[in-house]
Design a protein that fits this description.
The chain is an alpha/beta fold. The chain has a single domain (10-15, 18-242), classed as Acetylglutamate kinase-like (Carbamate kinase), CATH 3.40.1160.10. It has helices at 32-48, 65-70, 75-99, 121-129, 147-157, 191-196, 204-212, 227-232, and strands at 10-16, 51-57, 104-108, 117-118, 133-137, 162-167, 188-190, 216-221, 239-242. A nine-stranded mixed beta sheet has the order 4-3-5-2-1-6-8-9-7, with helices on both faces. Helix 1 (32-48) links the parallel strand 1 (10-16) and strand 2 (51-57). The radius of gyration is 17 Å and the shape is globular. The two termini are 31 Å apart.
Length: 245
Amino acid sequence: MSDESTPSSRRILLKLSGEALRAPGSRDNISPEIVARIAREIAEAQRLGSLQIAIVVGGGNIWRGAKASVRGMDRPTADYVGMLATVMNALSICSAIQEAGVPCHVMSAIEMKNVAEPYVRNTARSMLRDGHVVVFAAGTGNPFFSTDTAAALRACEVNADIMMKATSVDGVYTADPKVDPTATRFETITYEECIARDLKVMDQTAFTLCKDNKKRIMVFDIHKPGNITRALLGETIGTMIHVQE
């Protein structure tokens, strides 16, 4: 069977911010209510559309390896702790998606057979073809790489049609809208223009990997209810980044 997705069966890599799983002002690292809402939106899109959905979730709500390294912790160790944080988030998301009635699996780049399946590219693609949601955890399995890079890598490995970055901002702006009130949001922008304007969409490794493999990236606001379903079903919200033709 061909692994290529078709217009009637879009394959999507959804990158979720770990911070988005925490309720604002809460001491809880993971909000079950927020996780359930995100899972319901993913499950609704899966039921309404012929979709193949893979997910990468960050761990910033629990741990940030780079910050721990600045404070004196050995960087590889700090990054491995961060990878384990992504596993906790992945398990939470996966369980909630299953509760919403959609088959879901966690695949970890670091072997931990009692809680997750090992990441195997062909197995992941087979699960996606069967209509199961797959959550990729533990980053790339190596220190010094962000979860944005892990998401870009997995998007390329499973041949996703698009990478969707659900974050705390509603798109890509001409400048930081929190600093510059005159900043305006792009509806579409090319990779080349992002580079020329020095816009920080994601880390350079992830950005270059997507650009070189001609993966479109859509950046949108995860906090607005319904946005995940709308994005997954093909509505262009936020900002679409594409290679210049």
